[in-house]
């Protein structure tokens, strides 16, 4: 009968491209990796941001909370799990984007803010100058921290293609957000920050430059415009000639940003470029003569889409993904980067 009370045994975790080590009972993948000094990407540690997602290649895990809210159906089908919410039930092998594939080697650099530009009433562009050049794939993100906000780092996407030792982030203020509140109201030029990255698997796929008989759809909401803008500018520089439709969802006309950048990309795009801003809360009596409603109202009108990249709040992306699938688009043509904040973890 004593066999019924056997203590749990440790298991071995293998992170492809990094190494293997022992994980103690009740430890999560993320906790064990950090204990071993692995620079595993993370932000909230409570299953609310998906920064720590990794692909389960072999073995079994116990998930402490469901990942269905934060991960896309494509992620789940491909066996992605949340490192902070997964305990080992056997020896396990995982793949971590950016660590396992060497897409870009993550690096920690101490820098300082050299410019702050107001984009909208609740969003700023923060430029950071680092001591060394940084490389990343447009669309990826970094972990951003500062001594002024002791609660830890936040995930922000690079807003431009690599520009030597200068990086830019769009930071939108969220209710009660410590980091976003600091960036929008208290940060000043000269403040010290730490940039840890790059991380993430949201980037233009290698086959995006092929005509493939259809166009690319780009969808952004709020500060989700940052990685989409970086991807588009880099594609413009590389003369990608596929036709593109870019849907930008915002509340009101005052919430639209980076319009000069988008206009420049449109003028210099090698194929056809359509930019369609869609406003959901614009006053009826305003002079706005563009589209109103939601981006999902426009998607059914686009009949030749073969590849979609979208970034923004989860509800918007979930609705857009469902709409695309109703139109017959498969998972392998949809790439998402769901932007969440710590309010989702409370």
From TrEMBL:
What InterPro entries does UniProt report for this protein, alphabetically? 2Fe-2S_ferredoxin-like_sf (IPR036010), 2Fe-2S_ferredoxin-type (IPR001041), 2Fe2S_fd_BS (IPR006058), Beta-grasp_dom_sf (IPR012675), Cbr1-like_FAD-bd_dom (IPR008333), FAD-bd_FR_type (IPR017927), Flavoprot_Pyr_Nucl_cyt_Rdtase (IPR001709), FNR_nucleotide-bd (IPR039261)
* PROSITE patterns for this protein: 2FE2S_FER_1, 2FE2S_FER_2, FAD_FR
Superkingdom of the source?
A: Bacteria
Known SUPFAM superfamilies for this protein? 2Fe-2S ferredoxin-like, Ferredoxin reductase-like, C-terminal NADP-linked domain, Riboflavin synthase domain-like
Q: Any idea which GO molecular function terms this record carries?
A: 2 iron, 2 sulfur cluster binding; dioxygenase activity
Residue intervals of the 2Fe-2S ferredoxin-type domain: 11-100
Per UniProt, the keywords (alphabetical) are: Dioxygenase, Oxidoreductase
Co-factor requirement: [2Fe-2S] cluster
Any Pfam family hit: NAD_binding_1
Domain FAD-binding FR-type residue range list: 106-205
Q: What is this protein called?
A: 3-phenylpropionate/trans-cinnamate dioxygenase ferredoxin reductase subunit
Name the source organism: Thalassolituus maritimus
């Amino acid at each position: 009968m004593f066999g019924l009370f056997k203590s749990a045994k440790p298991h071995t975790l293998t992170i492809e491209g990094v190494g293997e080590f022992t994980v103690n009972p009740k430890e999560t993948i993320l906790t064990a990796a950090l204990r071993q000094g692995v620079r595993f990407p993370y932000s909230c540690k409570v299953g609310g941001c998906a920064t720590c997602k990794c692909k389960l290649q072999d073995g079994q895990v116990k998930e402490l909370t469901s990942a269905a809210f934060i991960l896309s159906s494509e992620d789940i089908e491909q066996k992605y799990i949340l490192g902070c919410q997964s305990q080992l039930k056997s020896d396990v092998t995982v793949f971590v984007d950016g660590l396992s594939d060497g897409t870009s080697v993550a690096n920690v650099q101490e820098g300082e803010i050299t410019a702050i530009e107001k984009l909208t009433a609740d969003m700023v562009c923060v430029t950071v100058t680092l001591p060394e050049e940084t490389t990343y794939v447009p669309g990826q993100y970094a972990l951003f921290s500062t001594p002024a906000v002791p609660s830890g780092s936040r995930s922000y996407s690079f807003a431009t293609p690599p520009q030597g030792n200068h990086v830019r982030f769009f930071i939108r203020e969220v209710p009660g957000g410590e980091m976003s509140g600091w960036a929008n109201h208290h940060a000043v030029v000269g403040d010290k920050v730490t940039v840890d990255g790059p991380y993430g698997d949201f980037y233009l796929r290698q086959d995006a430059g092929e005509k493939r008989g259809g166009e690319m759809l780009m969808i952004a909401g709020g500060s989700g415009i940052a990685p989409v803008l970086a991807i588009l500018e880099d594609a413009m520089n590389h003369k990608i000639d596929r036709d593109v439709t870019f849907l930008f969802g915002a509340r009101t006309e005052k919430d639209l940003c980076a319009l000069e950048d988008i206009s420049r990309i449109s003028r210099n795009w090698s194929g056809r470029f359509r930019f369609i801003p869609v406003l959901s809360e614009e006053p009826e009596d305003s002079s706005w003569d563009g589209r109103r409603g939601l981006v999902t109202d426009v998607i059914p009108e686009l009949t030749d889409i073969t590849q979609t990249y979208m970034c923004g709040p989860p509800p918007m992306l979930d609705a857009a993904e469902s709409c695309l699938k109703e139109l017959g688009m498969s998972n392998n043509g949809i790439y998402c980067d769901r932007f969440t904040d710590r309010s989702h973890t409370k």
